Amino acid sequence: MLKVENVSAAYGQSPVLFGVNLDVADAEAVTLIGRNGVGKTTLMRTIMGLHPVSAGGVRLNGEQVEQEPAFVRARGGLAFVPQGRGLFPHLSVHENLLMGLPALSTRETAKKEIPELVYDLFPICRDMAGRKAGNLSGGQQQQVAIGRALVTQPKYLLLDEPTEGIQPSIVQEIEAALTRIRRELRVAVLLVEQYLDFAWAFAERYYVLQRGVIVESGHTARTPQADVQRYMSV
Fold it and tell me: Which of 86, 157, 161, 212 has the fewest CB atoms within 10 Å distance of its CB?
């Protein structure tokens, strides 16, 4: 299980997160929603180890990791696709995928090659392997970014705004791929999402973050979207 325990975080003297508690079980899909600027990206970066905690802890597979760097968390089974995808635009698609392999360096049984399932889930990764990532469309880049995260063979996949700027047909493809990732690979997914239709179709549970505080949580199947829409409106 991935657990966030009373986590607070700040930028300099400006606090952003205040005692956040959140958990994601194995192979579960959870969505984190809220208005822009409430701390969602900061929370994801804090979980991944890209931003320090000022209080509280992060537990990964039963181990406290809040003081561990991001690469240690990646080797422990945590993967992150940031908002904006974080690809290397001047490297090819194949070279971007290869960047995920170092996370396997301490896993004795791991094969140091790109899993075939990545190409099965996202054929674009094979079809455009030699093309520079920066020349792809937004939807194609998102598929490559998720594929690169899967190369690390994660147990928990963090996605920050995976549908942002992507056409509806590609959103459907990404949803289908993520569903397979959960079912076939048993990978849990925590996603930040503004598009409630996507979030409610994919996730089993939700958390609402408002001004750095979790103000509501529940099951998507039991909570109409209209009941949480107020948290998304400006």
Answer: 86
Q: Please state, for a pLDDT cut of 90, what percent of the chain lies above it.
A: 84
Chain position carrying tokens 């956040």: 20
Share of the chain above pLDDT 70, in %: 96
Q: Note the pLDDT of residue 108.
A: 46
Strand-by-strand arrangement of the 2-11 sheet: 14-24, 2-11, 55-60, 63-64
Among residues 74, 153, 58, the alpha carbon closest in space to that of 115 is found at 153
| 69 CB neighbour count, 10 Å cutoff | 10
Please name the residues in contact with 197: beta carbons below 8 A apart, sequence gap of 6 or more.
Answer: 225
Q: What is the three-class DSSP state of 106?
A: coil
Pairing relationship of beta strands 188-192 and 205-210 according to DSSP bridges: unpaired
| Model confidence, pTM | 0.92
List, in sequence order, every residue forming a beta bridge with 22; answer none if it has no partner.
Answer: 4
Give me the pLDDT at residue 105, please. 60
Count of CA atoms in the C-beta half-sphere (13 A) of 64: 8
Q: How far apart are CA 2 and CA 157, in angstroms?
A: 11
Residue 97 CA, chain-centre distance (Å), reads 16
Radius of gyration of the chain (CA): 17
User: 154 is in which domain, residue-wise?
Assistant: 2-231
Q: Is the distance from CB of 166 to CB of 174 less than 8 angstroms?
A: yes
**CATH number, position 18:** 3.40.50.300
Report the alpha-carbon distance of residue 131 to residue 119 in Å, rounded.
Answer: 15
How many domains would you assign to the chain?
A: 1
User: Which residues, in sequence order, are bridge partners of residue 79?
Assistant: 157
